[in-house]
Amino acid sequence: MSELKNQECEACQADAPQVSGEELKVLIKEIPDWVPEVRNGVMQLERVYKFKNFKQAWAFSNKVAQLAEDEFHHPSLLLEWGKLTVTWWTHAIGGLHRNDFIMAAKTDGLLDS
């Protein structure tokens, strides 16, 4: 399997399969700083990025927003002083798809840019 951050998201329909428990165990190893969370019965991936101040967190949130627009896959973003919480899940299927893991890996890659 190639690195997630180098993979492309695929178009996702409402009948697309959610990531299985076995797939979750494999994929989460590639994005170890992300945590699977269940909210309102929906499995999601979440990571809190910490920064020295609001301006740095804001700048990073803009990078994540541009990535989301480029890929047409949009996370939940919570911008606070010195941190940005990013949450990925696939709304159309009400849970996690492989795309969410790809996007989490790509989000991590933005730290180096």
Overall description:
This protein has 113 residues and is α+β, with helices and mostly antiparallel strands. Strands 1-2-4-3 form a four-stranded antiparallel sheet. The chain has helices at residues 21-27, 54-71, 98-109; strands spanning 35-39, 42-50, 76-80, 83-88. The mean pLDDT is 93. The chain is built from three helices and four strands, in the order H-E-E-H-E-E-H. It is 33% helix and 22% strand. It has a single domain (19-112), classed as Gyrase A, domain 2. The protein is globular and about 40 Å long.
- Rg computed from alpha carbons, rounded to a whole number of angstroms: 14 Å
Strand proportion, as a percent range, falls in 15-25%
**How many distinct beta strands?**
4
Overall structural class, as computed from helix and strand content, comes to alpha+beta
What percent of residues adopt helix (DSSP H or I)? Answer: 25-40%
CATH architecture: 2-Layer Sandwich
CATH topology: Gyrase A, domain 2
The first-to-last residue Cα distance is 24 Å
Identify the strand order in the major beta sheet. 1-2-4-3
The major β-sheet equals: 4 strands, antiparallel
Which residues form runs of ≥5 with pLDDT under 50?
Answer: none
Top CATH class = Alpha Beta
- The CATH homologous superfamily is termed Transcriptional coactivator/pterin dehydratase
Question: What's the shape?
Answer: globular
What is the overall number of helices?
3
Mean of pLDDT: 93
Query: What sequence of helices (H) and strands (E) makes up the elements?
Result: HEEHEEH
User: How many domains, in number, for the residues?
Assistant: 1
